[in-house]
Design brief:
By secondary structure, the chain is α+β, with helices and mostly antiparallel strands. The protein is 19% helix and 34% strand. The chain has one domain (26-143). Strands 2, 3, 5, 6 and 7 form a five-stranded antiparallel beta sheet that branches. A three-stranded mixed beta sheet has the order 4-1-8, with no helix packed on it. Residues 92, 94, 96, 98, 100, 109 line the site of calcium ion.
């Protein structure tokens, strides 16, 4: 019994890796998220145009379990047209699907933006977080805090 399950293991995992590689094909963006607390809820990730920024409907969105630090997220090329975008990330610690804020409206869960943009009072402006994606893969590092 033990032996057969061990023998299955390489099969299972190479299949998973192949599946992921196929789905990813060419990356548009490779996001390296730092200061993630593994095992605490999920990461809400949005790649947003200006009109979508800070909203929940962006050009590309994904939700993944917070599982490593740093955690790398691939945005597939097939899912993102060239354009000007900003990335927003929330570590949704209680997995309720939204950014929790305190009575003053200040986030009580870690957030991060592309170019590590920070706002003076409240969230950063789109322009300070924005970057141009021209169809060539980009590596972005984002610190949550
Ligand atoms: Ca939350």
């Amino acid at each position: 019994m033990r032996r057969s399950s061990l023998a299955l293991l390489p099969l299972c995992c190479s299949a998973v890796i192949a599946g992921v590689a196929h789905a990813e094909e060419e990356p548009a963006l490779r996001l390296t998220l730092r200061n993630v607390t593994p095992g605490k809820g999920q990461l809400l990730i949005g790649v947003c145009r200006q009109a979508e920024f800070l909203g929940s409907r962006c050009a590309f969105t994904t939700v993944v379990p917070a599982q490593s630090n740093p955690q790398v997220i691939i945005v597939p090329k097939a899912r993102l047209e060239p354009g000007r975008y900003a990335v927003q990330v929330v570590q949704d610690r209680d997995s309720d699907g939204k950014l929790d804020t305190n009575m003053l409206g200040i986030p009580s869960e870690p957030v991060g933006f592309s170019r590590n943009a920070v706002g003076r009072f409240g969230p950063p402006k789109f322009d300070s977080a924005a970057f141009d994606y021209d169809g060539k893969p980009l590596d972005l590092a984002i610190d949550l805090g």
